Amino acid sequence: MKVQEYLPFWKKLTKEQQNRFEYAMRERKAAKGTILHNGSEDCVGLFIVQQGQLRVYTVSEEGKEITLYRLFERDICLFSASCIMSGIEFDLVVSAETDAILYHIPPKVYQELMRESAAVANFTNELMASRFSNVMWLFDQILYKRLDSRLAAFLVEEMELLETKELKITHEMIAQHLGSAREVISRMLKYFQNEQIVKLGRNSILILDEKKLMEAAKESLR
Amino acid sequence: MKVQEYLPFWKKLTKEQQNRFEYAMRERKAAKGTILHNGSEDCVGLFIVQQGQLRVYTVSEEGKEITLYRLFERDICLFSASCIMSGIEFDLVVSAETDAILYHIPPKVYQELMRESAAVANFTNELMASRFSNVMWLFDQILYKRLDSRLAAFLVEEMELLETKELKITHEMIAQHLGSAREVISRMLKYFQNEQIVKLGRNSILILDEKKLMEAAKESLR
């Protein structure tokens, strides 16, 4: 897919603006585990996801993590350029959850184009609104939904993303996604095992009863 | 203050655009307690706060409330026009916490101006980013800070806003602000009373020891 197809405002740019974009954009590969953006430590710019999966999360003062949302093919990572957005006062971390192929847009170029073009500025608005909505959904989950429901929904999501019922993931990693503690996740997974929903292995979780899992996940499926 | 002084993009508008704004804007008074916007039930438009205080909050399926942030003089309420922003998928409620004098901007007019003017679109971005930052701060409070700290900070904030040490507020109302339950708040306030930080009266809380209160509030002061 050509890079212009990822940017809905393309036809509203002048030829000169399009050239500026094309000249500045670079394809970039990121290996699984790469930290692409680390809060206010950097301002790398925007990333368009061609292939792969990014994880956007926060890290507390004590090092506790929680995943805010993930970005998939065709998604655009905005907060890796948070320095160009007045009003952003929080730190997010963006990492490659899988090997990924991205387009990179330098922050200054994007900022100029936002200032010149209402189409680019409005598109950026939509992106931010979308991310805000993701966070509000998570906020509601944290405040009002039970952890077993959130855990079950996470397992369903992993099963669908990885297209397998045998999830190679540690309890610690799940805790970091859900903003919980490993011991709590382990306890809950053992409960799921007692209910014969999953079977726990060494660093793996085998989903035995998809139907029961979906039922447990009901309140927390996106 | 003239309405133009509330809108930093004013000089970047054409005369025709300025006229369109001025023609559409109306001063509006809202009595304390008025619900100005109720989630997806309406799309009333934007409000500029001339005088008074607005409360922006969410209500869960079970009716539990939590205050996301407040808006004060010179602030602009954006989400009362959420229908014009693609990507907003959550419901907020906006109420007048005090009698208020507002300027009202109809959603269609603002939407047209966002589409025409990069300055208006970028300003809207900044507003949204600011609100997003407020919510991320609250999210961090909910995830990582203790309720006693949040309660103490709330009392400090009320004391400063109302300019009095005798707060006429019920435990239920505090619970609705903090997303907690009345019994939990009552228990915690009794604890503060035992520590001689406050004295509880009938529907009132008298702050006795401001210094101790600030100390308890430390982790949760904005």
Descriptive overview:
2 copies of one chain form a homodimer. The first copy, chain A, is α+β, with helices and mostly antiparallel strands and 222 residues long. The first copy, chain A, has 7 helices and 11 strands. The longest helix of chain A is centred in the middle third of the chain and has 27 residues, at 118-144. The two termini of chain A are 28 Å apart. The mean pLDDT of chain A is 96.
Features:
homodimer; 23% strand; 222 residues; elongated; alpha+beta; 4-stranded antiparallel beta sheet
Give the chain pair forming the largest contact, with residue counts. A-B, 39 and 39 residues
The profile of the biggest β sheet of chain A is: 4 strands, antiparallel
* SSE series of chain A: HEEEEEEEEHHHEHHEEH
Total number of beta strands of chain A:
11
Q: Helicity of chain A, in percent? A: 40-55%
Q: Number of helical segments of chain A?
A: 7
As a whole number of angstroms, the C-alpha radius of gyration of chain A is 19 Å
Structural class of chain A: alpha+beta
Termini separation of chain A comes to: 28 Å
